[in-house]
Design a protein that fits this description.
With 324 residues, the chain is an alpha+beta fold. The chain has 2 domains: 88 residues, 2-Layer Sandwich (Phosphorylase Kinase, domain 1); 186 residues, Transferase(Phosphotransferase) domain 1 (Transferase(Phosphotransferase), domain 1), CATH 1.10.510. Helix content is 31%, strand content 16%. A hairpin with a 5-residue loop joins strand 5 and strand 6.
Length: 324
């Protein structure tokens, strides 16, 4: 299901199965945004946020903030609260910008903003829906196997649905990667895009912030080079995620300097390299490689166009009409 609905991790289609085979470990030490189950110890804590939420255990810690589970005093529902732990004014402005951008997006494939405001110490707190799930990174590591290509496409379609909503709201996410994609814990429900910490308004397309913001392995060449970026930079990153799900490796591997150099001088990968197995159709490979073109003008021009291309692959597969 796509426009007008949601893409879930699994469906009743007999094609949506896992193919058991060994997978290499992805980058170690990635942070987890949410816990793998709903916490039960919130009521043992007494700190309140905004007078409306009881703060619970810490779920994750990033460079500039921590994420806690919390409970709404008004609805008794479980939420996630991101607290700024770097108190300088620049970081505070970035937290507030993240919240204001996220408030513009309303889609089941994007984590929902509930509330935000200033704490007593002048820092910013952001309240979001609690996602009962794990990052795509953890999901793949937990399964210890590569994903069937149809499941990989289904996850990517969920990401693209979220990106369609993000881009329609006039935002470029700029940091699509497995750590920022949440997979539902029990396998049913929409995948969700999280973490808008480096997102920018598409009207500015600002990449020249004086420091490299985002993840080099998934970053579009124009973003790496500090040029103007638009929605097609996010599509490049989504393509890199799908490439990795299929190939069990990134399109460009090596040190940060090596990856930057290869992205700068390459037109893009010419095939999906998987040393163990290749079971995806040629039509799907062409879509993935089109997303990873160095020149943004050579990529699909919107998330919706990508959705249509991938849905066409699945539709032909059901008919048994795909070339291998």
């Amino acid at each position: 299901m796509s426009r007008g609905g949601t893409w879930t991790l699994l469906s009743n289609d007999a094609h949506d199965t896992h193919v058991a085979r060994r997978r290499r470990s992805w980058l170690a030490g990635r942070s987890v945004v949410v816990t793998t189950r709903t916490p039960t110890s919130i009521d043992q804590h007494t700190r309140e946020i905004f007078g409306r939420y009881v703060l619970g255990p810490k779920l994750a810690r990033g460079a500039f903030g921590t994420v806690h589970v919390a409970r709404s005093l008004a609805t008794n529902s479980v939420v996630a609260v991101k607290l700024q732990h770097v108190s300088d004014a620049k970081r505070r402005d970035e937290f507030e910008r993240e919240a204001r951008l996220l408030a513009r997006v309303h889609d089941p494939h994007v984590v929902r903003l509930i509330d935000f405001g200033t704490l007593d110490d002048g820092s910013i707190g952001v309240v979001m829906e609690f996602v009962e799930g794990i990052t795509l990174t953890r999901y793949v590591l937990r399964h210890q196997s590569a994903l069937d290509w149809r499941t990989a496409v289904g996850i990517t379609l969920g990401v693209l649905e979220g990106l369609h909503a993000v881009h329609e709201a006039g935002i470029v996410h700029r940091d699509i990667k497995p750590d920022n994609v949440m997979v539902p814990l029990r396998g049913v429900g929409p995948v969700k895009i999280v973490d808008f910490g480096v997102a920018r308004s598409a009207a500015t397309g600002d990449s020249a912030t004086g420091r490299l913001m985002g993840s080099v392995a998934y970053m579009a060449p124009e973003q790496l080079l500090g040029r103007h970026v638009d929605a097609r930079a996010d599509l490049y990153a989504a393509g890199a995620v799908l490439y990795e799900l299929l190939a069990t490796q990134l399109p460009f591997e090596g040190s940060v300097a090596e990856v930057i150099d290869r992205k700068r001088h390459s037109a893009g990968p010419v095939s999906i390299e998987n040393p163990m197995q290749r079971d995806w159709p040629a039509r799907l490979e062409r879509v993935v490689l089109s997303l990873l073109r160095n020149d943004p003008a050579e990529r699909p021009d919107s998330a919706l166009a990508c959705i249509e291309l991938l849905e066409d692959v699945l539709r032909l597969d059901r008919r048994g009409a795909l070339d291998r």
